[in-house]
Amino acid sequence: MQELQFIELDDKRQRMWAVAFKGRENAYAVYSNYKVGAAYEDEHGNIHAGCNVENAAYKGTCAEQGAISAMIAAGGRKVASVVIVLEGAEPLCGLCLQHTWQFCEGDKDVPIYLISPDRSKVCRTTIGELFPKPFTFQAPKES
Fold first, then answer.
1. Which of 56, 92, 103, 105 has its CB surrounded by the most CB atoms within 10 Å?
2. Contact 42, 80 (CB under 8 A)
3. Do residues 61 and 49 touch, judged by C-beta distance below 8 A?
4. Which tens digits make up the pLDDT trace of 53-66?
């Protein structure tokens, strides 16, 4: 994984950062106060937002899971790229890596940008680099 540094973002990643940043601002993180926003681009070029949502049972949802759910609900089936906005630009948790991998269709080169809210820290990596040995299971084909 690249060192955290300022990297110029292309127009699409800037739009995705804005979507993820707004998601982060809307996050419901009343217990941890750790807000995360996500923007997932699908195979059609559509961008889907997600934010973390905590609850009293400590079984909240991560921003990445929310963005994937929004993508699926809108008809997308493949992740083309990801932008995550979080405080220190840390990697995704294991569950979010698995969720993301599930919709990369085996493409280990799907780019993931981890960006701090002020954009002072940007890391470009790939799902394959973050998750080199994913759990795989051949699910039945959708009808």
1. 92
2. yes
3. no
4. 999 988 899 999 99
